[in-house]
């Protein structure tokens, strides 16, 4: 379906000139004369203060820099909605509207998936966790209109089971008309993708850079490339094995 083509492009654009996050003294010029590298630790240090004040009720992440990045995503989505309103349009997304959980290619960065695992084991409501376990145990190959759902979707309610820590890509999906799986029609994705991209251009940085910098530090690398568009580590939700999901959702599994 044509809808799938929009998913990958939501967060790909160039670093803005005059970004408050990047200063000339931070840049490391390569032998070719390019200035697209910055010290990872110095880059993250600029955001530690902001990360500390992100509302933990809305963003219960243990990784507070990731919480900050996700809060940027929410700001972008809100800006996109405001731009829609100026055009006389509104977002049709609402609780229980789950078509995107079926047709979109659901994935997360390695850091996001770590946060999801922590949330499932430590903070997910027991009833939701039990429902997700039941789903993967009873109908591991379930599809609707030939679309496989995200394993974190509570199909009984049409709600995201990991909503507070859902990955960046999910936070940027908007539609001006309720999406349906049984009918291929225009739901405004062309417009909303464009508005989301415009809204990101008004932000100080791309949220993904906060994850990329942490990944580089973990690998013992000192710098990040400001032009890198996405994380090198991606977890494809719909490719997760049923047995691994059962172990994750099992009530017998506890965080050590």
Brief overview, please?
The protein is mostly helical. The chain has one domain (60-185, 200-256). It has ten helices and six strands, in the order E-H-H-H-H-E-H-H-E-E-H-H-H-E-E-H.
Brief descriptors of the model:
256 residues; mainly alpha; two-stranded antiparallel sheet; 10 helices; globular; disordered N terminus
Give a description of the structure.
With 256 residues, the chain is mainly α. The chain has one domain. 39% of the residues lie in helices and 6% in strands. A two-stranded antiparallel sheet has the order 1-5. Strand 3 and strand 4 form a beta hairpin. Helix 3 (64-86) crosses helix 8 (189-201) and helix 6 (126-138) runs antiparallel to helix 10 (242-249). The longest helix has 23 residues, at 64-86. The protein is globular and about 50 Å long. The protein starts with 36 loop residues before the first strand and ends in a 7-residue tail after the last helix. Mean pLDDT is 85; it is low at 1-34.
Secondary structure elements and pairings:
Layout: E1 37-39, H1 40-45, H2 48-52, H3 64-86, H4 100-103, E2 107-109, H5 110-122, H6 126-138, E3 153-154, E4 159-160, H7 168-171, H8 189-201, H9 208-218, E5 223-225, E6 234-236, H10 242-249
Helix pairs in contact: 3-8, 6-10
| Regions with little confidence, pLDDT below 50 for 5+ residues | 1-34
Rg to the nearest angstrom? 19 Å
**Total count of strands:** 6
- Which overall shape is indicated by the principal axes computed on the Cα atoms? globular
Strand order of the largest sheet: 1-5
Q: How many helices?
A: 10
For the report, how would you describe the main beta sheet?
A: 2 strands, antiparallel
The SSE order reads EHHHHEHHEEHHHEEH
Q: Helix/strand/pairing class, anyone?
A: mainly alpha
């Amino acid at each position: 379906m044509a809808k799938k083509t929009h998913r990958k492009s939501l967060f790909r654009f160039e670093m803005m000139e005059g970004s408050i996050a990047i200063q000339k003294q931070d840049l490391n010029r390569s032998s070719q004369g390019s200035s697209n590298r910055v010290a990872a630790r110095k880059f993250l240090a600029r955001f530690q203060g902001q990360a500390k004040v992100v509302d933990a009720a809305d963003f219960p992440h243990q990784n507070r820099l990731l919480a900050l990045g996700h809060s940027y995503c929410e700001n972008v989505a809100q800006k996109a909605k405001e731009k829609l309103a100026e055009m006389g349009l509104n977002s049709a997304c609402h609780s229980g509207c789950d078509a995107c959980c079926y047709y979109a290619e659901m994935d997360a960065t390695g850091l996001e998936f770590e946060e999801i695992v922590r949330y499932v084991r430590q903070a997910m409501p027991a009833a939701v966790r039990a429902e997700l376990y039941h789903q993967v145990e009873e109908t591991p190959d379930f599809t609707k209109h030939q679309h496989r759902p995200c394993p974190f979707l509570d199909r009984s309610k049409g709600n995201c089971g990991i909503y507070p820590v859902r990955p960046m890509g999910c936070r940027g999906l908007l539609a001006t008309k309720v999406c349906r799986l049984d009918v291929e029609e225009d739901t405004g994705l062309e417009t909303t993708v464009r508005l989301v991209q415009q809204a990101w251009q008004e932000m100080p940085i791309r949220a993904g850079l906060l994850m990329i910098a942490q990944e580089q530090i973990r690998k013992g690398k000192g710098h990040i490339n400001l032009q890198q568009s996405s994380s090198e580590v991606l977890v494809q939700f719909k490719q997760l094995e049923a047995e691994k999901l059962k172990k994750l959702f099992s009530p017998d599994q506890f965080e050590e």
